[in-house]
Design goal:
Length: 349
C-alpha cells in the first residue's frame, strides 16, 4: 500500500451536518413490511436515516458544517488557502463544486479549490491530500467531504434503501510545527469496480428517464473485499505509525453496516468500547461516515477533542485507506441539522 508520513500539520477541528428530514423504522416497515424490516434492521443496525430533500445537495451540507466550524475556530476566511471537496454527488458536471463552495464561503480568490471523486474511502484520501497540501503551501486548508447518496438509491432496493443516509462534513487543517506526526496508507483494486457502481449518469452509459442513476451493490462481494482489506489496512496503518492497538484510543471505521463493524472488531480483537459505531442514527453516510461518527461521539457546543485515532475507510472502487492521527484540542461542534433547501448558485458579484 502507498504509505505517507506527514509532519508539521494538525487537524484543528471537525464538524458534520445532516438533513433534518429523518426516515425511521416505521417508514421501512411501511415499504417492506414489519417482518422484513425487523430482519434488515437487525443486520444493518440502522434505526434512523437522514435523507436530503429535493434541492438539498452534498455541498449544502458541507457548507453548513464549514460555516459552523469556521465560526467556532474564529478563522479569518482570507487565511484559508486551500479547499478540497470530496464527493460522488456533485452539484454539476462543471464547474467543480469546490469553486461554488469557495464563493459561497467567502474565501479569497487566492484559495486553491478542487474536487475529488471518491466514495467510502474518501475521508481518508481527503485527509491525505489536504494534510499534504497544508504542509506544502504552509497554509490553512478546508477539507469538505459529503454525499447525498440517497438520491442514487432506489427506494425499493432492499440492499441499499434501508442502509444509506446523507451527510456532509468539514475538517480544518493547518500547519503546526509541534503537531504529532500522522501516517496514512492507501490502496486500490479496480477489479471490483462492477460490484458497487452507479452505471448511469456519466458519459459511458448516459442516464435517461427510463434509466436514472442508481447505485447497485453486490453485498456478498463487498463483504469479501472488506474481509480481506480492512483488517490489513488497520494493521498496516498502526504498524507503520509505530503504534499497537493499546496505543490507539479509538478506532473509527467507515460506518458500512453493523454486522461488518462487529465482525471487524472481533477479527482485530478490539475492546468493544474502542470501536466507534454511530450508524444507528444516521445510516451509512458514504464518504462522510467517519467524520460524522466522530462528531456524533464527541461533538458538543464548545467541545474540543484530544485523542489518538485510527481511521479506516473502504468501499467503492475497490478503494481503501487507513490513517493514524493524534488530535490535540481539535474543535468539535455538535452535529448540525439542516432543515431548509438553500438558494441556487449565488449570482456573480
Amino acid at each position: 500500500m502507498a504509505t505517507m508520513k506527514i509532519n508539521g500539520v494538525r487537524v484543528a477541528g471537525i464538524a458534520s451536518a445532516v438533513p433534518a428530514n429523518t426516515l425511521t423504522a416505521d417508514d421501512l416497515s411501511r415499504r417492506f413490511g414489519d417482518e422484513e424490516s425487523a430482519k434488515i434492521r437487525a443486520s444493518v443496525g440502522v434505526e434512523e436515516r437522514r435523507v436530503a430533500e429535493d434541492g438539498v445537495c452534498a455541498s449544502d451540507l458541507c457548507f453548513e458544517a464549514a460555516e459552523r466550524l469556521l465560526a467556532d475556530l474564529s478563522w479569518d476566511r482570507g487565511d484559508v488557502q486551500g479547499l478540497i471537496f470530496v464527493t460522488q454527488t456533485p452539484d454539476y458536471f462543471a464547474p467543480s463544486t469546490s469553486c461554488v463552495l469557495q464563493h459561497r464561503l467567502g474565501l479569497a480568490p487566492s484559495c486553491a479549490a478542487f474536487d475529488v471523486n471518491m466514495g467510502c474511502s474518501g475521508y481518508v484520501y481527503g485527509l491525505a491530500v489536504a494534510m499534504q497540501l497544508a504542509g506544502s503551501i504552509d497554509g490553512r486548508v478546508l477539507l469538505l467531504v459529503g454525499d447525498t447518496i440517497t438520491k442514487m438509491v432506489s427506494p425499493d432496493d432492499r440492499s441499499t434503501a434501508p442502509l444509506f443516509g446523507d451527510a456532509g462534513s468539514a475538517t480544518a487543517i493547518e500547519p503546526d510545527a509541534d503537531a504529532p506526526p500522522a501516517t496514512i496508507v492507501l490502496g486500490t483494486n479496480g477489479a471490483g469496480a462492477e460490484h458497487l457502481i452507479t452505471r448511469r449518469g456519466g458519459f459511458r452509459e448516459p442516464a435517461d428517464q427510463q434509466h436514472p442513476p442508481r447505485l447497485k451493490m453486490d453485498g456478498a462481494e463487498v463483504f469479501q473485499f472488506a474481509l480481506g482489506e480492512v483488517p490489513r489496512a488497520y494493521r498496516a496503518t498502526i504498524q507503520e505509525h509505530g503504534w499497537t492497538t493499546d496505543d490507539v484510543e479509538s478506532v473509527v471505521m467507515h460506518q458500512s453496516n453493523l454486522f461488518m463493524l462487529q465482525h471487524f472488531r472481533k477479527r482485530l480483537k478490539l475492546p468493544e468500547e474502542k470501536l466507534v459505531i454511530g450508524l444507528q442514527k444516521y445510516g451509512n453516510a458514504s464518504c462522510a461516515s467517519i467524520p460524522l461518527a466522530i462528531a456524533d461521539a464527541w461533538g458538543a457546543p464548545g467541545a474540543t477533542l484530544s485523542r489518538r485515532l485510527a481511521l479506516v475507510g473502504f468501499g467503492v472502487g475497490w478503494s481503501w485507506g487507513g490513517a493514524a492521527v493524534s488530535l490535540h484540542d481539535a474543535v468539535l461542534p455538535a452535529v448540525v441539522s439542516v432543515d431548509s433547501p438553500p438558494a441556487a448558485m449565488p449570482e456573480a458579484a
